[in-house]
Amino acid sequence: MNIDDRIKKTNELLSRHSTEELQQKAEEHNKKARKDFEEMKNALDKSFCSFCNQKIDYFDKNRPCFHWLLWEARGLKKKHFPVLFGKEGFHQISTYLRWIANCEKSFVNINDLVEEGKSSSIIDLTIRYKNVEWSFICSENDRIGHQEKYGGRQPHYHFQMKKNGNVIINYNGFHLPFTDYDEFCFAVSAGKFDRLRASDGRAAGVQTILDTIEPEDLIDTMSYTDNAEDALFNTDILIEAEEGHTISGDDIADLIQERNRTGVSMVKLVDKLKNVKVAKIISPGPGIPEKSKRNSNRSRKK
Questions:
Q1: How far apart are CA 140 and CA 155, in angstroms?
Q2: What are the tens digits of pLDDT across the range 16-55?
Q3: Sheet strands (E) in 14-111
Q4: Which residue range(s) make up the domain with 254?
Q5: Within a domain: 295
Q6: Does 294 reside within a domain?
Q7: Domains in the chain: how many in total?
C-alpha cells in the first residue's frame, strides 16, 4: 500500500471514532510511553538494555538491537550496522537515541534547532549521551534519491556516530533508506491526517521547548547556574532608563546578590527594577551539542 492510500485509509478509520475515544487512546499511549521511558532509564542505570534484556555490552550479529548504538557491545563493528538500520527506520532509531539522551539530561542533549540547520535540510539532528554523539542529515536531494548515481537512488538519510570525539561511522559510510513507517511519520508531521498530530513526548529536544512554550513562561522556569557551559539557554538583557530617570548601580548589585542567593535568574529579577524599559533575548546555550555538519568545520557563532 502506497503512502497516499495509507493516509486515506487511516483518515477513514479515524473518522469512525469520537474525539473522546481518540483522546483516551492518546492518553493510554502517553501513559505507556512514560512507563517505557522509566524502564529504559532504570535499565540503563544498571547497564542493561530494556529492549533485549541483555547487558549493553552484549553482541550477537544475528540479533540486532538498539543498544548497539551505545557502542559498548563487544565485537561490534561498523560493518554490522546495516543489519540494524535495515530492521529499524530513522524515526525508530532517532526516537530511541532521543530517549537515551533525555535519560541523562532533559532537552539539552538534543540539538534539533531549525535555525542551526540549512534551509534545504529535511533532517539535521545531533544527539549526545555522555561521550557518544549521533547525527542525522537528509537534504532535499537525499529525500528524493540520487537518480544519477549508483548509490543512494532510494530516498535516504545519512548517519554519523562519534565516541570520545572520534568518528566511528561517517556520513558517507551508508545511504540509509527510509522505511514505510518513516513515510507514515513524515505524513503525520506534514499534517496529512485529519485527526492525527505528532508529539515528541519523552523524545523532546530544544526545538520542542521553543515551539510549545511562550517566552515569558520559559523565563519563569529558568534558574541561575554557575556552570554556564552546561546551560540550555543563554539570556541577554537590555535595560534602558525611562526619560527623566537613571539606573542605579546599587539596584543592579542587589539583584545580582539576590540571584546568587536564591538561584532565581537575572532575566526574571530585572522585572523588579522601576522606571526602566527591559528587552530580554533568549538564545541556545553552550550546553547544547553543536550540530555535526557534512563537509564543514564551521562552528556555532557565540
A1: 9
A2: 888 899 889 888 988 999 999 999 999 999 999 999 999 9
A3: 110-111
A4: 215-284
A5: no
A6: no
A7: 2
